[in-house]
């Protein structure tokens, strides 16, 4: 049955409209969890607020296990799901640069848009930076085109690399994630700060 | 109860179930003759020259062109980056790494589309993935990309946009962008030596998702 | 002033985010993303202002060649939705306010400078790594893509590794 767009149950214009509604859900959940706060995002790296870790990994395991169940019931054909291609060097290099941007700027692209929507001025500055960064990439493209396209590996799945079924890998990740949540809650007590309140239910 | 424990008590059993059941393999590995006929009738194997040209210009590393004509023809003219696997050698072990894989998009081409289609049908029946056929073969390629026909000025915008793209693509790929004859194109094209075909990629475990 | 509401429980939020992600997969066959939208907007903008420049630069040729119209893309519509969704949530919870959020020991000016600098790095890195935290790491992990795990590890590993050296910014 799914994905609807591949099986031509909906048109490409409907798909764009639905993208808008999916975006609303995405933005709402991000903001409601405080991803619009740079101090909260940065808190993950100092242990005083690990909300981001919890939300991020809960979402990943929910979606991962959920997709496998949908596939089990025959409601979605996983072979039509877009899996981003792996270019080893640029994935690592890009990730390292993004990590530095994350800790210095306090946002990532999705969260900065979300934060700008509720009036955070530092998020607006961050978005300005993103635009500059992208322009630098596009204008200097010939300089890093080789690195960008090096070590193409297709669209491999981690489960294939490890030679296990997708289900088993998803289960193992869920166990690891719940272990990390436990550490996160411990860290929030240990590194708690007087000038910062986690402020959630 | 702590939210974390609630989450764990829901997610972990679900994870255990999904780890224990075999993945959904409703898709047969080999096609039945009927399925193959269906694919052929719906022309699912064809990939349009416009798309191939686009990937070539973008230097898309996932594209692998496979020339199934004879070696002599290949040396006279071939598409950029193509490797030569003459049809009679299709099942030779030397080429199996290139043809039976799931990393790149293989596009077979020949002068028309008959030979390439035959190659596709054989590999499809073997259950190989990611193999396609250049629609119309090299003849159509020269017609559309190297030597596109200018649409009348009254044509719909899409037609004109398509023409502009083809003209640009043709000149980027070494053609004359519509100003020269196909024969000249063939002479201009560099007779690139076939790249070394040694690929160490390990074969994917059969089955699974 | 009305006190802002508390944030959602993170595990509940994570499950909801996971469900949004599943809907995206089920409907559109793809996950969430973010960094593609500003890129599309930039390409469209630059193409409108200086078409001769885009026609002669390798990157734009590739990009424009592969896309119908840069703004008519899934990610652009999705990110418009994110702006609306974030605004709605902020409005419901009483968090709409113009302010600069910063650590206790830096001035607003320093915070803004570092935000711009971090944004430059993130913008560049997201192009090099073919997607940001949402597009590559979160979505990639949900589909168990090896690239997703690599990018995730690189982002969070680097941020953790640098955290100590830039602690003045946040602590």
Describe this protein's structure:
The complex is a heterotrimer of chains A (201), B (209) and C (171). By secondary structure, chain A is mainly α. In chain A, helix 1 (12-32) packs across helix 5 (109-117) and helix 3 runs antiparallel to helix 9. The two termini of chain A are 38 Å apart. Helices cover 67% and strands 0% of the residues of chain A. Chain A has helices at 12-32, 38-46, 51-72, 88-105, 109-117, 121-139, 141-148, 158-161, 166-190. Chain A has nine helices and no strands. The mean pLDDT of chain A is 90. Chain B has a domain at 33-144: Oxidized Rhodanese, domain 1, CATH 3.40.250.10. Residues 176-209 of chain B have low confidence and may be disordered. Helices cover 45% and strands 9% of the residues of chain B. By secondary structure, chain B is α/β, with parallel strands linked by helices. In chain C, helix 2 packs across helix 5 (74-93) and helix 7 (133-142) packs across helix 8. In chain C, 59% of the residues are buried. Classes of the chains: A mainly alpha (201), B alpha/beta (209), C mainly alpha (171). At the A-C interface, helix 1, helix 2, helix 3, helix 4 and helix 5 of A face helix 1, helix 2, helix 4, helix 5 and helix 6 of C.
Output the keywords:
heterotrimer, B: 209 residues, Oxidized Rhodanese, domain 1, 5-stranded parallel β-sheet, 9 helices, 45% helix, disordered C terminus, C: mainly alpha, 2 domains, 0% strand
Globular, elongated, flat, extended or rod-shaped: what is the shape of chain A? globular
N- and C-termini, Cα separation of chain B: 37 Å
**Low-confidence regions of chain B:** 176-209
Calculate Rg of chain B over CA atoms.
22 Å
Record field, number of beta strands of chain B = 5
The number of strands of chain A is 0
Supply Rg of chain A: 19 Å
Q: Quick check: average pLDDT of chain B? A: 73
CATH class of the domain at 33-144 in chain B: Alpha Beta
Please report which band the strand proportion of chain B falls in: under 5%, 5-15%, 15-25%, 25-35%, 35-45% or over 45%.
5-15%
**Largest interface chains and counts:** A-C, 133 and 123 residues
N-to-C SSE string of chain A, H for helix and E for strand: HHHHHHHHH
